Amino acid sequence: MEKQIEELKERLQKQEKLASLGMLSAGIAHEIQNPLNFVINFSKMNDNLLSDLTELVNAHADKLPADDREEIADIMVGLKDNMAKIVEHGERAISIIRGILLVSRGKEGELLPSDICKIVKEYTWLAYHAMRANHKGFNVGIHERYEDGLPQMMLIPQDISRAVLNVMNNAFYAVWHKAQTAAEDYKPEVSVSVVSHDGNVVITMSDNGEGMTDEVKERLFENFFTTKPIGKGTGLGMGITREIVEDRHGGKISFDSTVGEGTTFIFSIPIKA
Ligand SMILES: Nc1ncnc2c1ncn2[C@@H]1O[C@H](COP(=O)(O)OP(=O)(O)OP(=O)(O)O)[C@@H](O)[C@H]1O
Ligand SMILES: [Mg+2]
Q: What is the pTM of this model?
């Protein structure tokens, strides 16, 4: 009994700490969002101004000494590159902040009749294109299966989209990361299927990527747990995903993973008409 009370006390303390940490980080995230938006928007404006300036300079290039002309062109290219980097990294910071706000505030969305197959398809391809944009030349085979005639389900569409996107982003990262060291004949593959089973819709998402060790499996849903390098992952994806599927939709997440072979995530969500 005493041991149980001790354990309960510890758990409570931990939860209180987490709750105040959540509120603190939500506050900070919210305050940082605005100035960061200014940084991004003014950088984009500078980028446009720079394009105008380049055009002007080019139009009068014949009036400049040849040496200066080259140097000016080099400086312009350098400025444009730097500006693009400011925008890119600023947007990365914004997306981290959005993630923090999502977990710590847990804003309630509305349940709406939704087409689950359409959502899964759309966000699978969104993740695919994001991955392709970040890793030029890298490609993945995608296999899809959507059961015909699934009914419209009551879902919070933006939340389910987020959950699918989080899992898909991880899947694409896992195959990309594996491809960096795998044998030549490695073929990255990601599969997704949506079917109904026993009054549930079952969404299965598999990859033949790097897989997870036992330690990673244990800590997978922990907020801020990540194995990715700084800037690549925040460690919030799966925590948010579990909250969305289990707490907000009364569903269940299960997964299976083998190091070097791949990972499968399954969402099972009750169909409520
Ligand atoms: N499909 C997968 N294959 C291999 N490892 C995975 C997979 N999905 C998740 N993981 C592991 O779980 C960790 C936590 O995932 P999670 O999505 O919560 O955070 P993250 O991807 O690191 O960061 P982000 O907040 O950007 O999603 C990852 O860093 C990775 O080690
Ligand atoms: Mg992730």
A: 0.71
